[in-house]
């Protein structure tokens, strides 16, 4: 249990004279913890946007406060974890962002009701699809009273041919939120190489594939 030291006000008033030496007065800053800093974007003009020379899979992340290149740090099938040098962390399942860390608000987890239509983006050219999912949010200070669990989102996905690419739009509502995610896919393979996805309080994050994973 943390102990708090009580000091009579009369002993701290300057008008009462130097009753105690300055070196004795305790530093009270340790009685609270500051909010953790947010992750840093890459510096302006950084060369980090280039593909890694060693071929490591990489994404370019862009959000309202800046941009950063995130490298693949772990993979289990289609589930991948990416991290930037400044501390932005993004978890993806296929093309979908399922968790984030390092920003002001984090996505702590995502649960889908059924299969993800993004797994077959070209099929959305023929028939649109619905998806329900639940998302958990937390602040970067991990304050329990600011956590939000099970925010339910109802989404509708459809795709159109836009010149040389297939554009998938995902319109979602729920939990007081309304937004549209966009995904750009190769019409030959269905591989999604760019997306703009809502990630909570900061709004949309853009993900561009610099070096695709194997």
Automatic annotation (TrEMBL):
Keyword Repressor: no
Gene3D superfamilies: YmcC-like (2.40.360.10)
Keyword Lipoprotein listed: yes
InterPro entries noted in UniProt: GfcB, YmcC_sf
Compositionally biased residues, Pro residues: 34-44
Keywords, comma-separated and alphabetical: Lipoprotein
Region (Disordered): 31-52
Protein name per UniProt: YjbF family lipoprotein
Species of origin: Teichococcus vastitatis
Taxonomic placement: Bacteria, Pseudomonadati, Pseudomonadota, Alphaproteobacteria, Acetobacterales
